[in-house]
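Weekly structure sync, notes
Attendees: PL, DS, HV (note-taker this week)

Item 1: FecCD family ABC transporter permease
DS walked through the input record. Source organism listed as Paenibacillus xanthanilyticus. Sequence as pasted into the shared doc:
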Amino acid sequence: MNSPTATQPNLHRPHMPRHFTKVLVISIVLLGLCMIASLAFGSRTVRWQELIDGLFHPAIDSYGADVVRKRISRTVFGLCCGAALGVSGSLMQAVTRNPIADPSILGVNTGASLFVVCGLAFLNITTANQYIWLALAGAMLTAVFVFGIGSMGRGGATPLKLVLAGAATTAALSSLVSAIMVPRSYVMDQFRFWQVGSVGSGNWDVIGTFAPFLIVGLLLAIITAPALNALALGDEAATGLGVRTGLLRFVAAFAGVLLCGATTALAGPIGFIGLLATHVIRLLLGPDLRYVIPMSALSGAIILSVSDVIGRLVGSPGELEVGVVTAFIGAPILIILAMRMKVRSL
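Item 1 (cont.): predicted structure, written out as tokens:
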């Protein structure tokens, strides 16, 4: 009889997918181009020499170079948010075995929004640290609630039940958000700029607040990736391989909600990044989460950065918030995925 350890190497020993090196190199090149575009384009497009001066010649004091320097923190913040949302989406899809799971679809973003608006209305919150803890609490409670509702009845937490539970929860929480805001015009003024989702508020202080949550979430995601591969075989098979499925789901879901909640607190509820980033990587590299998770971070950073640049170009001389751009791109793709996959399990 084979021992449990004899069946585990195929799950835990790295087996590089085809074209991984090519996809990695292309992703890094695209990421670099996105960074350059984010620094160069906006309400004022800078010339190449101004870009060089802003990045490498701090002694040069010109308007174009100053614009580039101010955009650096926004660019870094956008890349961090995109990476966090990409990994969050891949974790939620793995935990729920739902190919269209995403923080925005499962109601996590809306739960974070409700707690933030409650903080604005009743607690007079004003700082990023206050936003982030309230948003995390709202995101985690909503995730537990949606999974609990989706697990009720025969068959447990099926993909279709989770999506329906997320949609119903989103509708209910959105109504509560409106009910709190409408009679309080000062809350509406603060909340409406945050609600659409934007990385324009990114500065080094905000990045410093965000960094610990991003690092912890990414580390947990990478640590749980091999066991999540086993979970994709089903709970019984995963248990037979020595995986503690309950603990694994909790840790992976916690990491996903941590990444999503922290991003939502500081940038607003930006939707569809996790869905798009993960599906692009699965299409290119296959289902192995040891590669899907880190590459989803790269893919999410690229998608959000491109969306931010598009928003600045389309809305010039102002800007169209990145949450609007990602929703415009992501909604039709979600419909196509739902029609083709018929909401089947991973």
